[in-house]
Every structure is written in structure tokens, then in C-alpha cells.
Design brief:
This protein has 196 residues and is an all-beta fold. Helices cover 0% and strands 52% of the residues. It is built from no helices and 22 strands. It has strands at residues 2-4, 15-17, 23-25, 29-37, 43-45, 49-57, 62-65, 69-71, 76-78, 83-86, 92-96, 99-102, 104-108, 114-117, 122-125, 129-136, 140-143, 147-157, 163-166, 173-176, 184-185, 190-192. The strands form two sheets. The protein has a 17-stranded mixed sheet that branches. Strands 12-15-17-19-22 form a five-stranded parallel sheet, with no helix packed on it. The chain is globular. The chain starts with a strand and ends with a strand. The model has no long low-confidence stretch (mean pLDDT 84).
Length: 196
């Protein structure tokens, strides 16, 4: 496995084609040019990720993101049909240029920590959406895949404006485990817009 501390100009690498060694980035990861292409390994980001130029291609396996994610300017983010998990124990903010396309997406932000998708932004989840632990405060998570799983530790923060939108093109299965706390409600801003 390889561990990198704060990476402030991955563009200097020009191309980083990972193999099967696990990659861990422990500080801020700022892509300002060039390309980052993960191989079929586990990639972990414990700090913030900023993409302002260049191309980030996620692992086709598993990528853990435990800090803020900003992709509002240039550059591209490719999910590579992999799985992304938001984890950690503090609040996380995702700020994108209106929409970001994801494949499998899991939110498991422990201790009921908040996930803020910038107001007006939408995270489109085209694969499986698993919401295990945490709270959505603002923005929209659009579940377009066949399976949506909402755990007992997940919900929308009280008086929040965040929305969980279920709007896939085919048949979708939504499973909701009953809440174990009264501090948030999962169905306050649940919108189902599917004709199947």
C-alpha cells in the first residue's frame, strides 16, 4: 500500500495509473491539472478533495471519501463504475457544478454527522444508493439505480431542505429501516418520481 500526505498539485504527476496497491491520501488532495487514474485498488481520502482542472478517474473498486469534495470549476470526475463511500465522524460538504454523476454511493457518516450538498446541487446516483448513517442538510441526492437502502441511522436533519429523489427509469426497490431516533426524519423531503 502507498500513503501520501497533502497532495496539492497532482497535475505534476501527469498520469497516475494505480495498480492493486491500496492508496491512502491523508491530507488535502487538489487536482489542478494532469490526470489521476486509480487502478483496481482501494483508494482512501481522509482530507478534502478539490478538482479544478485535469481528470480524476476513481477506482473501479472502492473509493472512500472522508472529507469535503469540491468540483465547481474545470476538470472532470469519472466514477469508473466503482463504489464511493462517504465516511468519517464530522460534517461533510459536497459542492459541485450543478450535478455530479456517481455509480454506487454509500453514506456512512457516523454519529449522525451532517452531509451538506450545496444548495441547488444534485448528486445523481446511477447504481446502488446505500444510506447507512448521517443526515442530509441541503441539496439533492437523486437515486436513479435499481436499489435504494435507507438504514435506521440515516435521515434528513429536522427543518432541513435536503431532498432524497427516487427517479430512476426502471423498477426501483426502496427499503427503509425504521428510525431509532427522533432527531431526524427520513421522509420529510422524500420525492418519488418514477413511472414504473
Amino acid at each position: 500500500s502507498m500513503t501520501f500526505n497533502a497532495v496539492s498539485a497532482i497535475g505534476d504527476f501527469r498520469a497516475f495509473n494505480g495498480n492493486t496497491d491500496a492508496l491512502t491520501f491523508t491530507g488535502t488532495f487538489a487536482l489542478s491539472g494532469g490526470t489521476f487514474t486509480a487502478g483496481n485498488q482501494t483508494v482512501t481520502h481522509t482530507g478534502a478533495i478539490t478538482i479544478s482542472s485535469g481528470a480524476y478517474t476513481a477506482s473501479p473498486g472502492s473509493t472512500a471519501m472522508n472529507g469535503n469534495f469540491t468540483h465547481t470549476a474545470g476538470g472532470t470526475f469519472g466514477h469508473n463504475n466503482g463504489s464511493i463511500t462517504l465516511g468519517g465522524t464530522g460534517g461533510i460538504t459536497w459542492d459541485v457544478a450543478t450535478t455530479e454523476e456517481l455509480n454506487n454511493f454509500t453514506i456512512n457518516n457516523t454519529s449522525n454527522s451532517t452531509i451538506t450538498v450545496a444548495t441547488g446541487d444534485t448528486l445523481n446516483v446511477n447504481g446502488t444508493l446505500t444510506l447507512t448513517d448521517g443526515e442530509i442538510v441541503t441539496g439533492t441526492i437523486a437515486a436513479k439505480g435499481a436499489v435504494v437502502s435507507i438504514g435506521a441511522g440515516f435521515g434528513l436533519a429536522n427543518n432541513a431542505s435536503g431532498t432524497l429523489l427516487v427517479n430512476g427509469a426502471g423498477v426501483q426497490t426502496v427499503s427503509i429501516t425504521p428510525q431509532t431516533t427522533a432527531t431526524f426524519e427520513v421522509v420529510d423531503q422524500l420525492t418519488i418520481n418514477n413511472t414504473d
